[in-house]
Amino acid sequence: MILHYFTKKENTESIIATNIYKSILKRSNNFLRQNNFFINKDYNTSFEIVSFILIIYINLNIKNYSKYKKINDNLISIFISDLDESLRSKGIGDMSIGKYVKSYVKKFYFRLSKFPRNTDFNSNEIFHDYLKLIKMIKNDEYLKASKKFLNLYKEILNTHMSSLRN
Question: What SS3 class is residue 96?
Answer without folding.
Answer: coil
